[in-house]
TrEMBL record:
<dbReference type="InterPro" id="IPR011032">
    <property type="entry name" value="GroES-like_sf"/>
</dbReference>
<keyword id="KW-0521">NADP</keyword>
<dbReference type="InterPro" id="IPR013154">
    <property type="entry name" value="ADH-like_N"/>
</dbReference>
<protein>
    <recommendedName>
        <fullName>Alcohol dehydrogenase-like N-terminal domain-containing protein</fullName>
    </recommendedName>
</protein>
<dbReference type="Pfam" id="PF08240">
    <property type="entry name" value="ADH_N"/>
</dbReference>
<keyword id="KW-0560">Oxidoreductase</keyword>
<dbReference type="GO" id="GO:0070402">
    <property type="term" value="F:NADPH binding"/>
</dbReference>
<dbReference type="GO" id="GO:0016651">
    <property type="term" value="F:oxidoreductase activity, acting on NAD(P)H"/>
</dbReference>
<feature type="domain" description="Alcohol dehydrogenase-like N-terminal">
    <location>
        <begin position="43"/>
        <end position="129"/>
    </location>
</feature>
């Protein structure tokens, strides 16, 4: 079941050879935009028309084959583990059907750096009207990392954290969540203007 006209083809970004250095002169040759079939959702899955997909530090490690067992993954491979968009088709199943037409944040296996992606409906989070696609595209990796940081700190009785990427999106989330939990954050930044931003949110 679909809520809109869906094309048969889409564009997707593929990694065709491992990145060795992000300053290498032939960096673009590591990637190809290819036209492929739009995937069809099966039972329990939904098809999401992707609007935004972030580049997380883990993605950069995957490009170099340094994350988990990514060095063993065959090439070419699809990229991207997190995105936001609109559910345009359901493969069946109650929850998948209820997501049809909704704006969502999604998380799953590689393949989010494409125009459409199929994911388990349970991997979708419905976005409130006041949350943009840009914000919704980062509603899994960074927030859950922050929650893990704070829960580990609480379990170990830690009263302060040092974060060396203080001005990052994750760093700003960490300042707010840790403050609510009574944990101080020492945020390391590169520029004075970044310190002012963090001061304003309670660092």
């Amino acid at each position: 079941m679909s809520s809109t006209a869906i094309p048969t083809k889409m564009r997707a970004l593929f990694l065709v050879k491992r990145v060795t250095d992000f300053n290498q002169v032939d960096l673009a040759s590591c990637f190809e935009v290819r036209e492929v079939d739009v995937p069809t959702p099966t039972s329990g899955q939904v098809l999401v028309k992707v609007e935004c997909s972030p580049i997380n530090p883990s993605n950069l490690s995957i490009l170099k084959g340094e994350y988990s067992d990514s060095s063993k993954s065959p090439l070419p491979s699809l990229l991207g583990t997190e995105a936001s968009g609109t559910v345009v088709a359901s493969g069946g199943g109650f929850f998948a059907w209820t997501m049809l037409g909704k704006r969502v944040g999604v998380f799953g296996n590689e393949g989010m750096w494409a125009e459409y992606v199929c994911v388990n409906a349970l991997s979708c989070v419905s976005l409130p009207d006041d949350v943009s696609f840009e914000g919704g595209a980062s509603c899994f990796v960074n927030p859950l990392t922050v929650v893990a940081f704070v829960e580990i700190a609480q379990a170990r009785g830690i009263k302060a954290l040092v974060h060396t990427a203080g001005a990052s999106a994750l760093g700003k989330m960490l300042v707010k969540h840790a403050k609510d939990a009574g944990i101080d954050v020492i945020a390391v930044v590169r520029r004075p203007e970044q310190a002012k931003i963090l001061d304003a949110i309670g660092a």
